[in-house]
Each structure stands twice: as C-alpha cells, then as structure tokens.
Sequence to fold (331 residues):
Amino acid sequence: MQFFRTPDERFENLADYSFAPHYLQIADTEGGELRMHYLDEGAKDGPVVLLLHGQPTWSYLYRHMIPPLVAAGFRVLAPDLIGFGRSDKPTSTQDYTYARHISWMSEWLLALDLRGITVFFQDWGSLIGLRLVAAYPERFDHVVLANGGLPTSMVPAQYTAYLKEAYLTLPVVKAEELGARFRDTSGIPGFLYWRKFCAESPQLDIGNLMAAISTTPITAEVERAYRAPFPDQEYLAGARRFPSLVPVFRDEPEVEENTAAWEVLRRFDKPFMLAFSDNDPVTAGGDKKFLAEVPGAQGVKHRTITNAGHFLQEDQPAQCVQAILDITGRA
Fold:
C-alpha cells in the first residue's frame, strides 16, 4: 500500500500543542506496514482515558482536554486515525474502508494492551470506537459518547434509490457556505451533502472547513493547525473518503457487522454516558437509541454540552472534560 507521511516540520509550533509524539507500526492489511501516531500523556500507571477523533480532525482536537485530564491523574491517549494527523496517509481513497479502520485501531489497542479504559469519542471516533467496545468489552470500564453513533443504515429501503439519485445531483458549494448549508439542511439530506462536498470539492481545505462549521470562532493559528497534516490535496484521500464509508444505506459495507456490534452493546452494563451537544444538526437525536437499548446508559447522569456544535471538543472542552470526570467519579 502506497502512503504519504507528512513532514515533521508541518507540526512545529502549533498553537497549544506541545505534546511528545509516539508511534506504532501496524499492518496495512496488504503485507506492508503503516505508522500510527498517538499522544500518551500523564502517569503511565494512571487510569486510562482514550480520546478518539473523527473526520476531518486529528488529535489536535483534544489539545485543551488533555492537560486537565492529566492533572486529574489520568493517563491520556489520543491516537491519530490512519489518514489523519501525524499518522501515515494511504494515497488512494479506495485504500480506506471501515473494516480496515477497525483492524488498524484494534491492532493499536491490543499492542498497547490498554485496559480499564474510559473512552470519549465523537463523529468517526464513535463509529470505530463503539466497534472496539463491542469487540473488547472487557477492556472498557466507562463510555462517553458525544455527537456520534453506530449506524446500521439510516434510510428505509423504499427511499434508497430516490436518495442515491438525489445525492448525485447535489451541488458542491464553497467551504464558506457550508456552515449555512449545514444549519439549513440537517439529517440524511445534510449528511449526503457532506459526502458530496468531501468527495468532490476541488480544493478541500481542512482549516477553512473547520472555521466554517465550528460554533466557536477559531483563530488563523488554529486553522493552520487543522491544515497542518495535509501539505497538498494528495494527502487528503482519507478525509475525502470517510463520509462515504458511513453505512447510510442497507446495501453498504459493515451494516451486518454494526448490527452484530449492537447486539453486544445491548448487553453492555458498564456506565455509558451520552454527552451530545445542543447545536449539532448532524447527530441531533442520535442519543435516543443508546438511552433506550444500552443497559449501561440506565442510572447514569447524562450531559448536554451547551453552546456547542458538532465539534464540541473545540467549542466546549471544559464541559467535555467534566463529563469524563463525572462518569469516573472524579467530579
């Protein structure tokens, strides 16, 4: 598998991100290897907090959450998914599959032999992270799910053909128009637009994108940090591909595997907190299925992250930290 590796100098002097890099070689599933980057902060014998990012971000998203969690006595790990951050970036969009991301993250988790984990995940971090919880439930003690889910298709069969055709005809707008488009078009139509935008936008600029869809204004320095992993468009195969891997339709890959994972989650009785934000059109209402079906969600005091959009870690990091402290009893 061919890949790009972002030069180290791209990550120098980033705002509020002075953490030491750590790396692990993992199998690429084709006989080669890829290098995965992760942060590992705090006492190595402390209880583990695992922070999983989504698309199109990287561990930089957690920069304001890591120090207070370390101060609370946790060992905090934040990997960069393959294709993002300081991790290697396969060059072809077809190199990225949902199954491969599960394989890559599973190998990392088992290689570090992490146990007693409190996991906080959002966006694609939850699509991958919930599969890890289902595969290795004995390794996870607490779950905080924020603005994410584990879809097993989201479109009734009778509407599949219509929506697929409509998706093909959606226009591609500029990044600065994306925030308004998201606010006006939520649910499945909004997500299909997101697929189209990421796959077909001629110039995908992650810094501009984060500025456009963040609820809290971000500075030019922060834009530069989100742009850092991607020196040019060739590095963006993963960011372009991720939305198309979400199993929206019943005939897409990993529907059966996610369905099987749900069967495990329906028996997961460890503390399971929902910490969705109050202003995310992408995942609004997605907490209801977990509240109804995951035993561990019963008897837990859930949180609404206020004044926050989809990237609630960027908008309200202190509230996200408090959710972790609450579920672990360190409030």
